[in-house]
Amino acid sequence: MRLILVGFLVIFLGFILVIAGSLTSAPSAGVGGVVLIGPIPIFFGEGPSSYAGDFVVLGIVLTIIAVAFFLLNVLLLRSFRRSM
């Protein structure tokens, strides 16, 4: 239950950060982003201020975190099944 609550809080915090960033920054001609499908990151970017390198680093960090949570979930599930 706690892990679900943490997940919702992280998603909510992400929405708040995106909204705050869009309100405080000046419009620019560049665009970029990261899409995570499972543990596989997909990066995209265009323009001089797309920060593609920063998105690559962010994608790698998010991928490592996602894989760590997946492995933690598998290990916890195995230990829970053994105890029953």
Strand sequence of the main sheet, in spatial order?
Answer: 1-2
Helix/strand order: HEEH
Number of strands: 2
Strand count, sense and barrel status of the largest sheet are:
2 strands, antiparallel
Number of domains: 1
| Mean pLDDT across residues | 78
Transmembrane segments: 57-77
Organism: Sulfuracidifex metallicus DSM 6482 = JCM 9184
Protein name: DUF131 domain-containing protein
Keywords: Membrane, Transmembrane, Transmembrane helix
Structural account:
The chain has 84 residues and is α+β, with helices and mostly antiparallel strands. It has one domain (2-83). The chain has helices at 2-24, 52-83, and strands at residues 31-37, 40-46. A two-stranded antiparallel sheet has the order 1-2. A hairpin with a 2-residue loop joins strand 1 (31-37) and strand 2 (40-46).
Break the fold down into its secondary structure elements and pairings:
Layout: H1 2-24, E1 31-37, E2 40-46, H2 52-83
Antiparallel strand pairs: 1-2
Keywords, separated by commas or semicolons:
single chain; 84 residues; alpha+beta; two-stranded antiparallel ribbon; 2 helices; 2 strands; 17% strand; DUF131 domain-containing protein; membrane; transmembrane
TL;DR?
By secondary structure, the chain is an alpha+beta fold.
